[in-house]
Amino acid sequence: MQDENKKEPKKGHVYVAAFESIPDLCKIGCSEDANVRLLKTGRTFVPGDVRYRYVEVEDMYGEESLMQDVFDKYHHEKEWYKGCQDIAWKAIVLMAKGGHYYEYSPEEEESGGTPSEKAVKMQNWTLPRLCRAAEIPDDAIFVLDSDPNTTVKRLEGSRVECQGEPMSLSRAAKNIKGLEVQPPPFHHWRYEGKLLEEIKQDLIKKGVKP
C-alpha cells in the first residue's frame, strides 16, 4: 500500500548549511531554491553568517531523506545534525549527480557573486538508480545475506519496508544485525541470489552510470 504521507517527487535542491554562531551543528534539508531558503534562515532565524552547499536533484524529498538516513546517528532535532559538519560537507559533493554542486559563502555575496559551481568526478548509486539500471521491479523483495528467511520489500524512492516500517536499506541492515553504525546500502542485501553491491559493480564494469 502506498504511503499516504509520502511526498510526490519534486525537482529542487538538497543542501548542507553551517552557521558561525552554532559551529557544532549543521542543517541538512531541501528546498525549491536553497539560496532563498538559506539566506533567509541565516539572516532571520540564526544570527551569524551562513555557508552552504547544495545540489540540484529531480526528487528533492527522496534525496533529502537519503542524506538524513545516512546521518541518522548524528541527529540533533528536526533538520539539525551535531558533530558531522565536515563529513556532511563532503557528502553533499558526493551526491552531485552529473558532476556538479554549488557553494555559497558570505565573501561571494560581498563581491556581488552568486553560488559558484564546482566540478567533481564522483558517482552516486542510490537504490532507485540501481533498480532502474538493473531493471529491478518496484515491488522487488531483497533477501538478507546472512539469513534467507529475512526479507524487505522495495517501496517508492529509496525506501524499503522492514518490520512494518519504511526505511533505507542501510538502516534495515543496521537494525536487523544490531550494527553500531549504518553500513553501505548494497552490501547486505541480495536480489535473485546476487548481492546488490555485485549487481552495481557489474553495471560499472559495463560502463553504466547512475
Sequence-ordered SSE layout with sheet pairings:
Elements: E1 12-19, E2 25-31, H1 34-45, E3 50-57, H2 60-70, E4 75-77, E5 80-82, H3 85-94, E6 100-104, H4 106-110, E7 116-119, H5 127-134, E8 141-144, E9 147-154, E10 160-162, E11 165-167, H6 169-177, E12 189-191, E13 194-195, H7 196-205
Major beta-sheet overview: 7 strands, antiparallel
Return the string of H and E elements: EEHEHEEHEHEHEEEEHEEH
- Number of domains as seen in the coordinates: 2
Structural class: alpha+beta
Helix content: 25-40%
Q: Say how many strands there are.
A: 13
Number of helices: 7
Give start-end ranges of low-pLDDT stretches.
119-123
The average pLDDT score comes to 80
Termini Cα gap:
28 Å
Specify the overall morphology: globular
Strand order within the widest sheet?
4-5-2-1-3-6-7
Work out the radius of gyration: 18 Å
Percent of residues in beta strands: 25-35%
Give a written overview of the molecule.
It is a single chain. This protein has 210 residues and is an alpha+beta fold. 35% of the residues are buried. It folds into 2 domains: 108 residues, no CATH class; 79 residues. The strands form 2 sheets. A 7-stranded antiparallel beta sheet has the order 4-5-2-1-3-6-7, sandwiched between helices. A 6-stranded antiparallel beta sheet has the order 11-10-9-8-12-13. 31% of the residues lie in helices and 29% in strands. The longest helix has 12 residues.
Question: What's this, in brief?
Answer:
The protein contains seven helices and 13 strands. The protein has 210 residues and is of the alpha+beta class. The strands form two sheets. The protein has a seven-stranded antiparallel β-sheet, sandwiched between helices. Strands 11-10-9-8-12-13 form a six-stranded antiparallel β-sheet.
